[in-house]
Amino acid sequence: MTLVLSPTHVRAIEEHAREAYPEECCGFLVGPPGEPKKVDEVRRATNVVESNRARRYVIDPREILATERSTAGSGREILGFYHSHPDHPAAPSDFDLANAAWTGYSYLILSIVDRNPNDLRSWLLDPERKHAKAEILSITP
Amino acid sequence: MGTVKVIIPTPLRQYAENRDSVEVAADDVRGAIGGLVGRFGQLRRHLFNDDGRLRNFVNVYVNDEDIRYLQKEATPLRDGDTISIVPSIAGGGLNAMDLLAARRKDTLSAQEIKRYSRHLILPDVGMGGQLRLKQSSALIIGAGGLGNPLSTYLAAAGVVRIGVVDFDVVDLTNLQRQILFGTADVGRRKLEVLKERLTSLNPGVDVQTYETRLTSENALDILKDYDVVIDGTDNFPTRYLVNDASVLLGKPNVYGSIFRFEGQASVFWAAKGPCYRCLYAEPPPPGLVPSCAEGGVLGVLPGIIGSIQAIETIKVLLGRGDTLVGRLLVFDAMRMKFRELKLRKNPECPICGPNPTIKELIDYDEFCGLRNPAEQVSEEFQITVEDLKQKIDNNGQVVLLDVREPLEWEIVRLDRAVLMPVGQVPGRVNELSTADDIVVYCKSGVRSARITNFLRDLGFRKVKNLVGGIDEWADKIDPAMPRY
Lengths: 141, 484
Fold this sequence. Notes:
By secondary structure, chain A is α/β, with parallel strands linked by helices. Chain A has helices at residues 7-20, 61-71, 94-99; strands at residues 2-5, 26-31, 37-38, 41-45, 57-59, 77-86, 106-113, 116-125, 132-139. Chain B has helices spanning 29-39, 44-47, 96-103, 110-115, 117-120, 126-134, 147-157, 190-201, 219-223, 236-249, 276-279, 292-295, 301-318, 364-367, 385-393, 406-411, 425-428, 447-457, 469-476; strands at residues 2-7, 21-26, 58-62, 65-66, 82-87, 89-91, 137-141, 161-165, 206-210, 228-231, 253-259, 262-268, 327-332, 337-342, 382-383, 399-402, 417-419, 438-441, 463-466.
């Protein structure tokens, strides 16, 4: 599996993470389905978690529903989600794994250290929901 | 019984013949989802867990309402309703178990058990000991040569709260011994880099940084929250300050110092033994003991001494073993020998003795003679590098007196300078003439200030100290000149 992003998308995610730092930011990766998954829009989501915002994010399901509805019929859909790990590696935590939804979504994680984007990786949950495997991330204009 | 539309989320469409929605007939939500998984059996395990309940990340909406706020799965349906299955998207940087366990300091998470397994099977550590480390905290003064290995080992060992006090930025000359820093880090704040490295080594540790000089005003406030204080400083005023503050707060002070090829370590703990003042009641006169910047230090040496301090800290926190309380360990790298000196508590000690005269923190710069006016050179006996350059360019006759050590002289020097190391000046003063214009310089202008004052006292009137030394010359006049 490959996730394709443009440099503009990467910059948008980095900008979002910088603004949210030291809290986590999160958002949607939207684009036409297929392989590779080509993201054509990065859409910000609101982190609605109430406590420990530096280490947690939650996207309101209603915002997910609204995003799904807004893309319905356009040939585009939610390909995955991004979030930032302030001062942590760009790897899924056990908490990410335990809370990940169905296999198939890309989970893009940006590690941001002191407001400096550090590492960007994409992950897919395996069908047994036990591990995340790295997904090929291609950044092309 | 109504016919409702169920919207299938993208990742699940592969299990529903790639449809994005399915129409089912049902009375309530339970019936609708039951009908759905009845038709597409593969969907079941993606929506339900082994107990047959909806998975915790599965949200079900009827039109715009979450069924949790309606009648849950018994929510009745009407013809034309739309059911959406929406995932919860949540996560975060920290391991969930660790987060839980971090709140519960009386237990180790499965990950922590694995991470610290080599400790857990050690007879003197075990689960109990590791938990003690998890509940404890250590404050490191200085993020330099000693602070680097110290903080690394403490973070790796699972001392969960580590404070570090420093205000410096990474300099190229640090990299020879401060091994957490890389070439790309030059110019960055030490604490920023340190925190990054320690957090990546062990995300479970809480690294607290204090970007400030430790002073008599802030020391008690910073030290009071920690179980152990670790002295990784490189100067006498801070060393006495750390000692006095530790004694006043009753904290153990794990001491280490390095110079050239020799290092020292001890544990000063007034409740159980002597303090630093029992060992050295008075600081040496300023300038007598050169700093590492002046005298040099073997890059590996702080690795040894810092590691010894880390071991002692862990032993103090565990309450195990014979610590260096009452002993001064002296390590000579050239002869590769460890020696040990017995230290006794000084009954006259002004801070930890039975009749203390120091009851609060004092002015440590003054105590160490650093405010002594004798060390300052008055305005008319100073010269800036710019003025010196102009003087030389105008063919002004000037004797450049280099009072650094021969090894420094070999690295770099000013043209036509005369080498006369500080220690040789009194014996060779007859080589100088009071009739000449003399400019004294060293690396940074401190040693040369002493010599300027010394010569003045002997009656030299035309002697000047080069402000900022050869460093300043390299900075402002000759950027091609190597710095050390």
